[in-house]
């Protein structure tokens, strides 16, 4: 795979049943757990820190995934950690943040360094989550800067898992068609 690239002799680790579109590029210290899908034009650089993507997570078209290097002021830097059953919408930018499980990141959202997003959260399209903010579980966040808008409805909480399951089915179709 020409789009899976080493950096300083570290190559991405890809578990079984993952789909990576030919136009996506993954560099360095990246781990994809089972059933992850990486869609067209995603750029993921695990060059100066690590990227970890949990099972059944999907990263949609044009998204950018990056990290923050280690420094004197930030000895661990900021890795990018994405939990299980996460849907990352088209053209989202995730930089050195931590996302829990069952999260929907809306299209064009930006989540910055040091942010912690707890489980069961929806981040609205176009929202900006500023550095070091913590998003509480069970809420919708919208705006620039993102603010807690309201509790999630039961139907929205259920949709978080439905979304990831739909992308597992879709990536399986892509794998079958292109194998």
Mind explaining what this structure looks like?
The protein is mainly beta and 179 residues long. The chain has a single domain, classed as UDP N-Acetylglucosamine Acyltransferase, domain 1 (3 Solenoid), CATH 2.160.10.10. Helices cover 14% and strands 37% of the residues. The chain contains one helix and 20 strands. The protein has one helix spanning 154-178, and strands at 4-5, 13-14, 19-20, 25-32, 37-38, 43-53, 58-59, 64-66, 80-82, 87-88, 93-95, 98-99, 103-105, 110-111, 116-117, 121-123, 128-129, 134-135, 139-143, 146-151. Strands 1, 2, 4, 6, 8, 9, 11, 12, 14, 15, 17 and 18 form a twelve-stranded parallel β-sheet that branches. β19 and β20 form a beta hairpin. It is globular, with a radius of gyration of 15 Å.
CA-based gyration radius: 15 Å
Compute the number of strand runs.
20
The domain count comes to 1
What is the CATH superfamily? Hexapeptide repeat proteins
Order of helices and strands: EEEEEEEEEEEEEEEEEEEEH
- Tell me the β content: 35-45%
Q: Give the CATH topology.
A: UDP N-Acetylglucosamine Acyltransferase, domain 1
The averaged pLDDT comes out at: 97
Poorly predicted spans: none
Distance between the termini: 13 Å
Shape: globular
**Helical content (DSSP H or I, runs of 4+):** 10-25%
> CATH class, anyone?
Mainly Beta
Protein name: Gamma carbonic anhydrase family protein
